[in-house]
Amino acid sequence: MTKIQALRGMNDLLPSESALWQYLEASVADVLGRYGYREIRFPIVESTDLFKRAIGEVTDVVEKEMYTFNDRNDESITLRPEGTAGCVRACEENGLLYNQTQRLWYQGPMFRYEKPQKGRLRQFHQIGIEAFGMAGPDIDAEILLLTARLWRDLGVLSNVRLEINNLGTPEARAQYREALVVYLSTVIDQLDADSQRRLTTNPLRILDSKHPGTRALLHGAPKLADYLPEQNRQHFAQLQAILVQAGLAFTVNPYLVRGLDYYSDTVFEWVTDDLGAQGTVCAGGRYDGLVAQLGGRMTPAVGCAMGVERLVLLLQTTGQIPAGINDDADAVFIVLGDYMPAALALAETLRDEMPLLRLTMLAGGGSLKNQLKRADKSLASIALILGEAEFNRQLLVVKHLREPLEQVEVAFSEVAALIDQWLIE
Known about the structure:
Layout: H1 15-34, E1 38-39, E2 45-47, H2 48-55, H3 60-65, E3 67-70, E4 76-79, H4 84-93, E5 102-111, E6 123-132, H5 137-154, E7 160-166, H6 170-185, H7 193-201, H8 212-218, H9 230-246, E8 251-252, E9 264-272, E10 280-286, H10 290-293, E11 301-307, H11 308-318, E12 331-335, H12 340-353, E13 359-361, H13 368-377, E14 382-386, H14 388-393, E15 395-400, E16 408-411, H15 415-424
Parallel strand pairs: 1-5, 7-8, 12-13, 12-14
Antiparallel strand pairs: 2-4, 3-4, 5-6, 6-11, 7-9, 9-10, 10-11, 14-15, 15-16
Helix pairs in contact: 1-5, 5-9
């Protein structure tokens, strides 16, 4: 019988990898909590119309990448390709936005049908940050400073760089789009094939092209900055002033655009050179018109999303993995003979007295030699050994597995204090 395998681009997360993911997710949750952001959770499947209206029907995401199908009621539904649209829908539907400000975050899987490659899967994971009801550059700056603090806590701030730009208003972008199309139409034969297609569908995405020939042609193209209204110029200038005063380095990238139609005004990306072509680890910007676009009131909003797979790769590539993160336990319990009931009861007592202790029972029995081999593989620091002689005297043998120290015999009532002392040392 043929074995069933995972779908292409939808990977398993094994126990040897999950500890690093948990560390990353806990670090993010800690930083966000310190800034006053609260977690929100919403479904991974939504009405297809939500993403068509939010992202834009002529974007690559909607045209080529969404997992869309009809359910049993013949309604078109889609596995979420990104988080902002669903977050806005959830907030509006549950009355979180009217005359309120919200600082929110979420995490979970997203789905896009594209060629799987390093750091880019068909089921991938994102952590999203969204702030509603605040129109000034100060909230833009807060999210940039927040993410910078996260990189600093993770030890990768020196491995990423911040690029920012301003996309102006939809009206200004429409005027700029016309000028850009006129210019690029005169050199269309020199554009790469993807940019030629985008010239009639989403010409602003050509600014983000990685093709060397197309990038060279863009040097002579009209500049988006020349089309920005005064209010956007002031917003962008104030944002830069805040970042300078805060000591956060950045580069203004005039070719930086976002692949989703709802962005306007501030946009940004955190980029690394350590992951090859998939160098963007966090990206976002303002989307002040999206709430109204989805049926709500006009609501200023800004947010970003970071790719968990790419951040994990960055931590691995740069060696920023905390010591002992893959250790299965602090201590293991070895039981010899028919004393498992007593050992289980004692283990529960130890867990009551030491809530942070990671204690693993070596179930299944076996000789002392074989159980010590299993204990060694767990990377635990200490082995607790209970056999007939120990049970009769109501004590445990406590053996160091990582240090060249003598094993000792300890009364049941004193084991917790000794373990606590050793683990602290």
